[in-house]
Known about the structure:
A: mainly alpha, 14 helices, B: alpha+beta, D-Maltodextrin-Binding Protein, domain 2, 2 domains, six-stranded mixed sheet
Amino acid sequence: MTTGAADILVRGPLQPEPARGGAGSGPVGPLDVDAGDIAARSPLQLFWRRFRSDRVAVVSLGFIALLVVVALAAPLIVQIAGVPGPNVQNPNATDAFGSPLGPSAAHPFGVDQLGRDVFARVLYGTRVSLEVGIIGTALATLIGAVFGLLSGFYGGWVDTLLSRATDVALCFPILLLGLGISAACQVRGCAAGAIQPGVSTIIAIIALFNWTYIARIVRGQVLSLREQEFVAAARSLGASNARIVFGEILPNLTAPLIVYASLLIPLNILLEAALSYLGVGVHAPTASWGQMLAQATPIFNTAWWYMTFPGIALLLTVLAFNLLGDGLQDALNPRTVPQPH
Amino acid sequence: MFNHHHRWRGAALSAAAVLIAGLLAAALGACGSSENTSSAAAGTSVPLKAGESPLGQQLAGKKRGGTLTVYDHGDFEHLDPGEAYFAEDYTVLSATQRPLYSYPPNSATKLEPDVAAGPPVISAGGTTVTVHIKPHIYFSPPVNREVNSGDIAYAIERGANPNVACPYFTPYFGDLVGAEKAAGGPISGIEMPDKYTIVFHLTKPTAALLSGALSLPLSAPVPPEFAKPLDAHHPTTYGSEYVVASGPYMLKSNSKGKFLGIGYQPGKSATLVRNPNWNPHTDFRPAYLDRIDINIGGAPTVIGQQVLKGEDVVQNDNPAQSIVKEAYEHFPQQITFTPGSGTYYASLNNAHGPFTNINLRKAVWAALNRGAIVKVRGGPLVAAPMTHFLYPSVAGYEEAGGPAGPKVDYNEHPEGDMAVAQKYMKLAGYPSGKYTGGKTLQVVGATGEPEEGAAQIVNQTLQNLGFKTHLSILDKSVMYGKYCGVPAQEIDVCPNVGWGRDFADPQTVLYAPFYGPAISPSGNANWSQVNNPQINAAMEKATLVVGEPARAQAWAKIDEELVHQAVVAPEVYASLANIEGRGVAGVDELWNDGNWDYDFTSLK
């Protein structure tokens, strides 16, 4: 390992990624730094230098930043664009057969069956996707990290218990769970109204059942890290278990956590779209891309725009998060040979 | 009758339930053809083209023989004449079963004797109905014998058997002497003086209503020696595994009369073949086709394309909205529009919650844009704004105000009038014109278009009036079976319910959905839970009125009172679009929602 690699360690060796493509298992190669620069760069600087050289990842990050802006400023954008709000119904915007009319100056993305502006609904749909994607993933990552840390560090019966819990959660059919909640809880909710179909329930489902991969990865990393010398050193200095776990080991998991969380976001966005497509996601009339795709399916032959624009939005968003995840993985993994894009 | 668009699960409905089920839309075309067509297309900018209305359809077939292929994305509910209550089921029953009386396909008002030899004879002050039946009508194999009056008696008696649970037994046959305690055994009010005569004795002078009900499939003969053992099962296996036919066609069966797995694969297909024992000299049905192959399932848009570009093929059930448009524009000779296919409306809970306040109901009625719901249902070719309850082609429709309906300000603007709505909000005690009562309304609609769109329009209207709403969109069977049809659930608004008549009598449109004592704890069809003493009394009186004009007048008065009470938020009068392949000379059953009549349809 080069001295450069040694410099970006926090308190121990940054662990290589478990096999993901060829990146983590590839040959150890020279980093794109020369020896003279090493001392002057913090790990963050080094990461950023590697990341920004990946143009695809940078563009993806820019797109995601744009999405966040769109989600936050959706009402303002709708106002500036001069289109009606996402839930404004207008029967005059459909033809004599009730078929929605296509893109026009008044409705740049056309309208849906109720004459609602598709542009405004796509913009507002960003909110649901990002809300579910980011909050759901953050919670899932938190739960997964805690489970993985405890399981890997303590081993023994703790490991057995948490690993079996992970196995059980891993087996849970999330789509069926969503369908079941919808069927049983839609009208008045379950558990005294605490469980109802909607964004918060989707986030809860993700948080409760999508943490498993993170937990397994973290556990594997911790099993290795806890045998490292810096952990032994900390222990010999009298550090408590909590201090070792959260102060010594956790910082070394930052890279894989960021990478896997960024790859989990698009999966969760797709899960929300799938649940909404099946009619168990967000409540009408809240705009959601998955729900729009479901409503567009039976009229695709006469209203291509209704499927196309939310479809493109979903595709680009998922693609951006995936490419960002790849870029982060490349930039954070010291064993990666930067690939020109 | 329940409209087939509202696919209720009839099996879940008990015999005690008074008139369950969605709208089947039965009868149509009572008035002149031009009148019906124009009323259904009122306000349209899409004029009907020549040949697109089935009201003047040619009944003479083009060719004898051949196989018709039918696509139907929905499955059948029941193929038992005692249980069936849906338009889709009736298409098969009208080809395989012969009731005492039937409507020819181009009429919804003129009953023809079918198994009966002539018109019913009403006597004893309207408390006795005598029907003579034709000789030489035979059951299909394996029964093979001649139909007699005992088969008609058994068919009706089994309607009260809990294992059969005919959904309309109580409202239409409940006045038979002894019907109250009937549970499948003999009913004392049904007599068979000889093998070709049957006499019905009633506790009240309601013979006119009973005579009309003898057009329902419950009066089609059922051989007791074959069906009794099957009716002992719960639910009966007559009509679900075994059945015999009296009509020109039969479900393809084995030598024991079993058709399940042979002529019917649930969710997949059904096959009708000729009944070898059918006697054409006793029947007005020409039965041109040799065989009808029914394919069940598939996406409506795909089915629509297969039919419009196919030959010997038709679609049963509503085509997708985009297919209607395509057919109208590019295949105008392959589509028909049948008016008078029932009503759709949003029920407002008259018994609990905010809508016990009549002014709040009037406000919703005024605010709802019925024109928007016409659009979302496919435009004026398949829907018209609803202004009252007796719909076009039902006797009493004109008397109750015709297309404009009763003249009250909240009914005058089908496109919605917020100013009038505000007036009633204020009268209801909300001076700001917005509801401030705090209660969140439970609104339960149905999945799929156009129901979901209509539900969202109603939901938005409620929100515009200041109501907080919780809109749930559920499978139709769940919507009806667990929520809208269960008063204890106290659902405030059901935006996707509706009703159509069972036969040519206005009572069949108004009684079940609005008669207070008909409210039942489950399978309830009085979704608004209307229980108004004056209306109940008027209905009880109108039931006894004799003569079509007088009955139309009496029920039109009740219709007007229902409007004055604003018992629902009206949406649309429905019409049915039907599409056929190039090689089909299709004939619609006007009395059955405009669905295909396999007895009169032929290949070119």
